[in-house]
Write a structure and sequence with these properties.
This protein has 65 residues and is of the alpha+beta class. Helix content is 43%, strand content 15%.
Length: 65
Amino acid sequence: MTTSLLTPKQTAETLGVTIGTLAVWRCTGRYPLPFVKIGRRVMYKFSDIETYINAHVYQNTMHEV
């Protein structure tokens, strides 16, 4: 099994957010972006980032309530 892991810096660059934003998302659960903890180190699976991006693809800005 091969799993590509990205650092928070790489993940932030991929998503166009700051590392601090990722930290807030982890702490608050605001956005469902899974992460991996290896000791004190935080990593993100590339496949989870792709899934997150694909789940946020929209055709327009209208929201259904």
